[in-house]
Every structure is written in structure tokens, then in C-alpha cells.
Amino acid sequence: MARTPETVPFSTASQVTPVGRNVYRAFLEPTYCVGAVPNGGYVASTIVRAVSDYLGPRGHPDTVAAHFEFIDRTDVGPVIIEVTDIKSGRSISVVHVTLYQGSLSPEAPFFASSSRKPVLAYVTNMAIRLEQGLSLSTGWEMQPPAAPVDFDKLRAGKDPRWTQRSRLATGSSSGAMRDFSRASLQFQYYFPSEPGRRGEEDVWLRFASGENFTDTAIPLVADALPYIIEAWRPHEDEKQTPFRTAEMWWYPTLSFSLDVKKALPGEGSEWLFMRCFTRSIKNGRLDLQSIILDQHGELVALAHHVNLVVPASRNLQKRKTIGNKL
């Protein structure tokens, strides 16, 4: 796998630069956008990376729990991330994070009263690799179980149980949706050759750039498949219900909660598995649950999203912006 003009390594796209004791500068890349809006998981990963840098010197580099509120849509371009201490304990630290855009300055105080605050977060960090305490086997298993996988065959595209394809349905609008969701081009997706029920998706993921997944990429992975509704997209020769083949949707995240169960290896992981499912799609709103496993089938993280379902044109609407000076 090699970098193309459509792919930017996550380590580059999520880079943060400290500009003050608790303030970081970052740049939201257009290649991680859905339409004109940076993917929510990408924004969350950038925040987590800033928190890791801030709390790492205290011995708390790993995010174990986080909650993100997307108050407004973000824009491509510079952001300021401010980290505020809420609790600084011996084994756990909790911080509040504010992401600013608009009316930014290269010097302190870096943002103005007119700056927008499109994302707020609470993040809990500790050192996962140093955790000690009671461990019990619960006997939990995913039901139904995922299909077996052979990674050597999967890399060669020869595992008959898994098929590499776009994360989108095959309706006539899939090409347009591919262009609309550039963030999806950052991944290679491998879906079961025998699809399951609508409303539930299994997928093996790896970065298109060839880099490995790291702990800070987990929020991005958790938000890599908010397209459950695409399974209902009719073909052109089918009855145009529950919506038209060419009708395009945007699934903006209102809130996103993450529970991290284990750290990835220091060198990262080439593959991650995710099962996404929804329990209810009603009145333009859906819940999205994500279960993330590593290559050994061990639980890495759980995530819960609250998403809207709105016409894609809402994503592309222009709005009055406050000038970015960075």
C-alpha cells in the first residue's frame, strides 16, 4: 500500500503542536472529510492525541474513556485545542477539552471571544499497560460470531469469506458518495462475502496509507462506518423505497462516547475488526454501536454514537465564517 493524493497518513493528519502549557494547534485535513465537514472520529482522534501529549508527562498517556459533543460542524483548516484539568489523580486524570475555530491567532491567547467552539469533550486518561486489579472471564462472545479470517489470504484478496469493497452500497449513487466521503478513502474495507442482516455490518479495516493503527486512531476507527442506512439503498431497477437510489444522505454525529478496554501494541496493529449495528432509525435519528477487536479477537473498545440522518446538501451549505488567521 502506498500513499496517493487521496490518502494522507493518520499520523500526519492528526498531528498536534503545543503552543502553550495546555494549548495545542492542529490542522483538519480535507482528505478526512465527509463532504465539506471533517469526519467526527478524525476530529476526536486529534483531540485524544493532544490529551495524550498533555497527560503523558504525568504518566497518563492512554485514553480509557471519552465523551465528545459536536455542538457545530467543524471546518477544514486550523484549530486550537485547549485542555483544562478537572481531576489530576495518582492513577487517573480527567480533562475538559475545547476545540476552537475562527478568529484564531498565532500568539496567546490563540482564540477570541468570537471564536467558535464546535467540539467539547471530557477525556479520562491513565496508563493502561500498568493497570493492575481484579480480572474475571465473563464468557462474552459476539453473536452471531464473525466469519473466520486468514490474514495472508486477506492481503492477497484470496480469502473467500471476505471481500474488499467500498463501505457503500452498490446503488447508482455509490460513485457520488465515494467522492462525497473522502474520509472513507483512508481505509481499506473487507466485508463478509455473505452479508448479514441489514442494520449490522462486520468489517476488517486497515489504513490505505500502509501505516498501523495506534491507540489514538481508535476514535477514528469507531467512526469509520456510520453508513448503516446504505444497506437499504435500492438499485435503479427496484422500487424506489424507502428512498430513491440517487438520494444522498449525511450522518452527522451529535455525540460520541468511547470506552477503551486495552492498548494496542507499541508498534501498532495492521488490522482491526469492527462490528457496527443500530437498534433504531426513526425520524431522522439513529443510534450506532461499535465493537472493535484486534487481530487476536480481543476486545479493544466499545463506542456509542448518536447521529442524525439529513440530506447531503445540508453538509455543503455555505455559512458565514469567522476568518482564520493561522
UniProtKB/TrEMBL annotation:
A Pfam family hit: 4HBT_3C
Domain Acyl-CoA thioesterase-like C-terminal: 182-309
Annotated Acyl-CoA thioesterase-like N-terminal HotDog domain residues: 30-106
Gene3D superfamilies (alphabetical): Acyl-CoA thioesterase, double hotdog domain (2.40.160.210)
UniProt cross-references to PANTHER family, sorted A to Z: CHROMOSOME 23, WHOLE GENOME SHOTGUN SEQUENCE (PTHR38110), THIOESTERASE DOMAIN-CONTAINING PROTEIN (PTHR38110:SF1)
Name this polypeptide is given: Thioesterase family protein
